Amino acid sequence: MALTFGQSLAKASPTFLLTTGMEHEIRDADFVLVACSEAYLRRVERREEPRKGQGVVWEINSIYNCLYLDKLVSEKFIPVLLGGSLPDDIPIPLRGFTHYRVGAEPGYDGLYRRLTDQPLVSKPALPMRVEYSSMGVAPW
């Protein structure tokens, strides 16, 4: 599993967040963890000071476009709550998605299981199929 952090990429290349690089990262990722907080939501909703949080605005527009193209059916985007963040801090288009509070063990474990394809409950294997002959069966 490879991880890429937008902030670390932005430090390596300050213009990265406002280029197509972020779009490529989002497009090529199996999962995109969206760290949701009150400040993040303010930036998403453009209620932040002018010129503050422009990377978030670019990011969320890319996410919204992906969701639009996928007709809002996507397993890629995973809202993550840190610290005192609340479910209301998740941007509206992502609120219907399963979210994880990673500061607590159950949330972290659930996220880890999802990222590593280890469901909590596995589907039981189907029993072997028994073949019946249609010869000599009386119609009902």
Structural description of this entry:
The protein is mainly alpha-helical and 140 residues long. It is built from five helices and three strands; from the N terminus they run H-H-E-H-H-E-E-H. The chain has one domain (6-115).
SSE layout and pairings?
Blueprint lengths: L5 H7 L7 H9 L3 E5 L1 H7 L9 H16 L7 E5 L18 E2 L3 H11 L25
Parallel strand pairs: 1-2, 2-3
Helix pairs in contact: 2-4
In percent, how much strand structure appears in the residues? 5-15%
Q: What is the average of the pLDDT values?
A: 83
- Put simply, the count of helices is 5
Shape, principal axes of CA atoms: elongated
DSSP, total strands? 3
> pLDDT below 50 for ≥5 consecutive residues: which ranges?
none
> How many domains, in number, for the residues?
1
Bin the helical content.
25-40%
What is the H/E order? HHEHHEEH
- Strands of the widest sheet, in order across it, are 1-2-3
Question: Can you give keywords for this protein?
Answer:
single chain; 140 residues; mainly alpha; 5 helices; 36% helix; elongated
Outline:
The protein is mainly alpha-helical and 140 residues long.
